[in-house]
Amino acid sequence: MKAGDKLFDKIDNVIGGCKIGVVVFSPLYCDSYFCLHELALMMDLKRKVIPICCDAKPSQLRLVHDGTMSPEEVMRFRSALEEAKHTVGLDFDSLKGLACVDCWHCLTDTVVHESEEQAVLEAEDAIAATERSSQQHRKTEEAAAPRALRPSPSG
């Protein structure tokens, strides 16, 4: 990002273009409007979310409404938090030190696996779309062909 960029526009564009989001929940996560906005956007866009609980348990994640957010934002952020709490993620305890390496290995393996699955699904969707387009093209050609050139029903 560079000076003059609109922060929310950049965040929204990047999240809109991603397929997988990694969310690091910390004890102060819910104090950050930006973090909550990003999580809610990922959930709204139905992105795959991989939560990492860093020194925090999902049950500890609570939105405290201090009057600075609109009722719609409060509802949206709470809903996103609840959905994230019920998503299998990774745990990291900073007091254990080396567990961080294990966590990052697990995270990279998960992201690579999810990316591969996503690529397969996209390829299958592209093949299905191509087949539908080809069928539609054949139907259009058949409908446009002069009657004399059409095969008779009897053969």
Which tags fit this structure?
Rossmann fold, 155 residues, 3-stranded parallel sheet, 4 helices, mainly alpha
3D structure, described in words:
The protein has one domain (7-144): Rossmann fold. The protein has helices at residues 7-17, 33-44, 71-85, 99-144; strands at 20-25, 48-54, 90-92. Strands 1-2-3 form a three-stranded parallel β-sheet, with helices on both faces. Strand 2, helix 3 and strand 3 form a beta-alpha-beta unit. It is mainly alpha-helical and 155 residues long.
Q: In percent, how much strand structure appears in the residues?
A: 5-15%
Q: What proportion of the residues is helical, as a percent range?
A: 40-55%
**Total domain modules:** 1
What name does CATH use for the topology?
Answer: Rossmann fold
The gyration radius over C-alpha positions equals 24 Å
Care to count the β-strands? 3
Quick overview:
The protein is mainly alpha-helical and 155 residues long. Helix content is 54%, strand content 10%.
Q: How do the strands and helices of this protein lay out in sequence?
A:
Blueprint: H1 7-17, E1 20-25, H2 33-44, E2 48-54, H3 71-85, E3 90-92, H4 99-144
Parallel strand pairs: 1-2, 2-3
